[in-house]
Amino acid sequence: MSVVTLLDRFRRVSVRSLTERRPRSVAGQVFVLQVALVVLLVLGAVLALLLQSRHDSDREARNRSVAVAEAFAYAPGLREALASPDPTAELQPLTEQARTRAGVDFIVVMDTRGIRYTHPLPERIGGRFVGTIQPSLAGRVYTERVNGPLGDEMQAVVPVTGPDGEVIALVSAGLKVKNVTGVVDRQLPLILAISASGLALATAGTALVARRLRRQTHGLGPTEMTRVYEHHDAVLHSVREGVVIVAGDGRLLLANDEAERLLRLPPDAEGRRIRDLPGLAPGISELLMSGREATDEVVPSADRLLAVNQRPTDRDGGPAGTVVTIRDTTELQALTGRAEGARNRLNLLYDAGVGIGTTLDVVRTAQELADVAVPRFADYVTVDLADPVLRGEEPSRNGADMRRTAVSGVRDDHPLYPRGLRIDFVPSTPQARGYGTGRAEIVPRLSRAPGWRAQDPERADSIVAYGIHSLITVPLKARGVVLGVANFWRSRKPEPFEDEDLALAEELVTRAAVCIDNARRYTREHAMAVTLQRSLLPRALPEQSALEVAHRYLPAQSGVGGDWFDVIPLPGSRVALVVGDVVGHGLHAAATMGRLRTAVHNFSTLDLPPDELLGRLDDLVGRIDMDEGDRDTGAGMTGATCLYAVYDPVSRRCVMARAGHPLPALAHPGGRVEFPDLPAGPPLGLGGIPFETAELELAEGSRLVFYTDGLIEDRSRDIDVGLELLRTALAGAADRTPDDTCRVVLDALLPAHPKDDVALLVARTKALPDDRVADWEVPFDPGAVGKMRAAAVGKLEEWGLDDLTFAAELILSELITNAIRYGAAPVRVRLLHDRGLTCEVSDSSNTSPHLRYAATTDEGGRGLFLVAQLAERWGTRYTPDGKVIWAELSQQPGAGGKAAEAAGLAAFDVLDAEMI
């Protein structure tokens, strides 16, 4: 179907019949108008589609002709075929085959004069080509529409060039125009179908719009709509809200009756400029002429407060100007003030819920209550708490031990009691009554209330003279217990506190009281945990000469933990250093730490090597975990670590072993710092894996640094970074004392508020001089006892220990005699002169002597009893080569007298004459 036919069909539609039957309703008229517009739009779209389709088909034909011609012109072998004696014989089959495959109507190869070599019609071969070839002879591709042998054709001519770039032939390919237009005719039904569908949808949409408009206008015609506008105008002038329309040039276009009344406009106000209207308040006049948007903006006008809303009228393409609505808010002002007050109270309560109780500190929480109420509720706030509450204890029943804990005010020069002062409120004060009864009180006029003046008349006069005139006292009560009182003072506002203020104060204090009570209970539990932990940690390090030791312990910010350390003197002037860590915080971690420290002390009295001591400690922790697991308490010790070392000042050797603990640091006297390669054992309680030791020979003045993981580990850095910081700090403190080293290390590694507790132990080694050590090998003969005794006496006289000679003779005689009688060779004697005198007798036997009570008829058995009486301490330690029995004699005054008393006991011991 052609476009002309389609236009004629639409032209024959009888528009006159539509106009003769003009609908009376506005909706019907709109429907007819929109249908006409839709038909015109659809016709235009169909015509555009047809023209576009025709254009696209012509362009496709040109592009295809050019592509086929170029492809054949550049085909391999074309130049050779043109140079052959009979180009037609070789090219005609090729062109026909290419034409069929490419979908074109002809492919013609010709020479530069236009004489055809090929053509779909063989009789045309040898004839002159119909078309323009001059542009192609110049080397360009040329397309044109001509009336050729096949009819009306769309063809393209492409040059064929030789090796030197000269045009040697031409190739033309093309389509018949009727084939091109056939494509358009085949597309026309689809285009018309789509257009018809679009017309149907548009008509349906227009019908829906008209239907909706009909519902909105209720099918009214112009007359009826006029009547509606008349009614609308009547309503506009009868509502109790002013409506004003102002033109863009500042002229008043419309003002209803309420607007004329509120603005006191003259009868001829409409049409005049706003600035020329008499009696219009300046604020209203300025707002109406500004044209700016306003939302509930309150503007005074005469004796009224008017709420004005103003919006521009040209927002949606309307005429320039503004529409204004005006309400009288004078009567609502009081209600608005009360609503604003209620809103402020809610905001204050919200801020109190967020700002009070941010920490578990009693004083800080009380200060937060005072700060949040000033100045929004009161001008000054003071909080008085019972003294036991500040210590974490339950408060007493009377208010005689109150302490001012928090003060906040709009000024700092107030005459109220200062912070920290202990106050004994007299019974006539509202504070004492509130503390006793648990009920809040309000004092509207302080100048007229004699009861509170009895507390301090001179200060009361100063408070009144300062301008503070009203008071609310509210007890801080939680769980039925009164913790203190909060006082709210007013000075700036002339009105006294009212009942509504009292209710708000009670709400504020109730929230704060719960937070203060939680902080109090936390303070009590924290104090208990700290007390327990402090009692379990060493209060003072024991006296010894092998090491110069300093230590630090810093609890975590979250509370006490399980880090611990100890320094344990051992026989033979040796010293044991131990550092441990129990995972977790709180009472259980502190109690666990105490149990481990006690166990280490007990095991150290057996003088066990470090690996064996850790093995026994591991077994103990495993048994305790098993027992507590059986009781289903869930409070086992798993997660504890330990590092144990023994230093001998005679040999300057240190033997260490660790159970899952960080490596110790070793700072040499020259400043070099290293972390010894100490075998890593499993944490305590896992069991089944043996521990290994490492032995180091230390130069005198070396510093051993033991620590827990809280020193080097932190969330903000890697553990390797912490170790490097520790190395740098120790290297920089090479000439410092152990105490200064502790300070330098903590300053370099710890943040202001550590998350984990830290134990640090720094020990600088000392060496026992060679002239303080005497060592002999004893012949395995009872007769050698006397010689050893004589040699020892001589050495003691050399050391100036004459007071200990008698006791040392008796002890050595008994120990050497027992070693020869019950032990095995070789037997050695060693004397150490340190803080006292240590006598050691060693042999290669593992038999250990035992102290017993001898009967009156026994000839022996009193020797060790004699040793125990003469020595401060004595015992046995085992070595890889046997055992060592040692006894320590104190060099304190009176030690010789003790030896003299013991000499009487020696008479009861039967000693061989040969040995004496």
TrEMBL record:
Residues spanning the membrane: 31-51, 188-210
Organism the protein comes from: Streptomyces pyxinae
Main location: membrane
InterPro entries, per database record: Bact_Sigma-Reg, GAF, GAF-like_dom_sf, HATPase_C_sf, HATPase_dom, PAS, PAS-like_dom_sf, PAS_4
GAF domain sequence ranges: 351-526
Domain PPM-type phosphatase: 544-765
The entry's keywords: ATP-binding, Cell membrane, Hydrolase, Kinase, Membrane, Nucleotide-binding, Phosphoprotein, Transferase, Transmembrane, Transmembrane helix, Two-component regulatory system
Cellular location(s): Cell membrane
Xref: Pfam families: GAF, HATPase_c_2, PAS_4, sCache_3_2, SpoIIE
Superkingdom, natural source: Bacteria
Keyword Transmembrane attributed: yes
SMART domains registered for this protein in UniProt: GAF, PP2C_SIG
UniProt membrane topology term: Multi-pass membrane protein
Name this protein carries in UniProt: SpoIIE family protein phosphatase
